[in-house]
Amino acid sequence: MPESAATSRRGPRSLDIIPSAMRTPTDLMLLQTCNHNELAITNTCFQQANKYKTTWKHPRSKHWHMLDYVITRQRDLKEVHSTRAMRSTCCWSDHCLVRSVVALSLCRPRRHRAIRRRKLEVAKLELNEYKQAPQKTLLTVHHFAA
Q1: DSSP code of 49?
Q2: Chain Cα centroid distance, residue 122
Q3: Weakly modelled stretches of the chain, pLDDT under 50
Q4: Is 21 part of any domain?
Q5: Which residues pair with 125 in a beta bridge?
Q6: What is the pLDDT of residue 146?
Q7: Helix, strand or coil, per DSSP, at residue 72
Q8: Domain of residue 25, residue span
Q9: Residue 92, domain CATH
Q10: Whose CA is closest to 23, among 12, 32, 35, 11?
Q11: Is residue 83 exposed (0-12), middle (13-18) or buried (19+ Cβ within 10 Å)?
Q12: pLDDT confidence of residue 17
């Protein structure tokens, strides 16, 4: 995948902690899936400090990494106001919660117009001429088939 396509799905302000040569196959699979399905990773679309982009701290090296993502369709990206990690949450974990502010606009469901169906004329089924017409066509089809 070209680097420009990966940048468009990741966002212009992504963390390049891991060089492109050292990315894991799962990183590439995520970028390819986003590219194929026209998705965007919103964690990397907003200008903010790196401490608000990373969500997990390695226990030994104490380096912060981005493990949790908020993914949305590219056409809905303008409705996402911000996505950031909440570092001050006290949940006794090495992970941070990710908060995304989204503008939702609710619309009424569209009602489909009902198709008018013609009423069946059941009274004609009682007349002999209408009873015999399908029988005649069946006999002629059977006669040509034999």
Answers
A1: -
A2: 49
A3: 1, 5, 7-8, 16-19
A4: yes
A5: none
A6: 55
A7: strand
A8: 3-102
A9: 3.60.10.10
A10: 32
A11: buried
A12: 41
